[in-house]
Amino acid sequence: MKPRLLFATGNAGKLRELRVLVGDAVEVVSLKDLPPVPEPEEDGATFEANAVKKARAYSEATGLPALADDSGLCVDALDGRPGVLSARYAPGDDRARYEKLLAELAGVPDEKRTASFRCALALVTGKGEPRVEVGRCEGLILHAPKGTNGFGYDPVFQVEGEGGRSMAELAPEEKARVSHRARAFQLMRRHLLAL
After folding, report:
1. 55: how many CB neighbours lie within 10 A of its CB?
2. Which residues contact 156 (CB under 8 A, 6 or more apart)?
3. What span, in angstroms and rounded, lies between the C-alpha atoms of 159 and 94?
4. Residue 143 assigned as binding residue
5. Which of 9, 72, 110, 178 is most buried, judging by how many CB atoms fall within 10 Å of its CB?
6. Does 117 appear as a known binding residue?
7. 162, exposed or middle or buried, with CB in 10 Å at 0-12, 13-18, 19+?
8. Which residues are catalytic?
9. Nearest CA to 10 among 68, 59, 49?
10. Three-state DSSP class for residue 31
11. Which residue in 156, 27, 30, 36 sits closest to 89, CA to CA?
12. What is the C-alpha to C-alpha distance for residues 132 and 1, in angstroms, rounded to an integer?
């Protein structure tokens, strides 16, 4: 019988990415496949701390090995903000958050608009210490949004090495190749296949 792994997400896109990565070697279930479990508060100071906290809480609640992620955007000119607060950077929707970011960067020259998307993945199996891997995607913050794909800060993040395109201008398969989450998944793959 193949091992089961809980991926602590309700995001169908993330779930699909993980299932492709592990293939038939692991049975991946999501939070939607299980009875409701209390959601842990994301109050860590780092992406890694939040991912470990979520993976540990869901593993303990379900008895399954659990994988959890925490991710966000870190802008160098803003001392790493929005960072772990990326999803809560401004009230409202994604547009409100990236508009706040653009307002804070008004007047900042292109060469100082460097940023990175970061994704921390944590695996808790109940045996030993959590495994943590971090993927990064480097780029720049644009002066105005471009593109209609993706979500979050994608329209204002110009991906390094992608011809000046924003993350929101990349096709889904291109994003899956270069994103911070894809890179973290690749780093975590060996741990998942060893379950």
Report:
1. 28
2. 98, 101, 102, 141, 142, 144, 145, 146, 166
3. 18
4. no
5. 72
6. no
7. middle
8. 70
9. 68
10. helix
11. 156
12. 26
Report residue 77 as tokens. 């000119």
- Residue 10 known to bind ligand: yes
71 is in an annotated binding site: yes
Place of tokens 């049975």: 27
Full pLDDT tens readout for the chain, 195 residues: 889 999 998 877 788 878 877 888 899 999 999 999 999 999 999 999 999 999 999 999 999 999 999 999 999 999 999 999 999 999 999 999 999 999 999 999 999 999 999 999 999 998 889 999 999 999 999 999 999 998 899 999 999 999 999 999 999 889 888 999 989 999 999 999 899
The reply, when asked if residue 79 is annotated as ligand binding, is no
Bridge-based pairing of strands 114-124 and 66-75 is: antiparallel
Q: Which residue has the tokens 């990415």?
A: 17
The structural architecture, per CATH, of the domain 4-193 is Alpha-Beta Complex (3.90)
- Cα separation, 147 vs 62, in Å, equals 40
pTM of this prediction?
Answer: 0.90
Domain spans of the chain, in order of start: 4-193
72 neighbors 47 (Cβ within 8 angstroms): yes
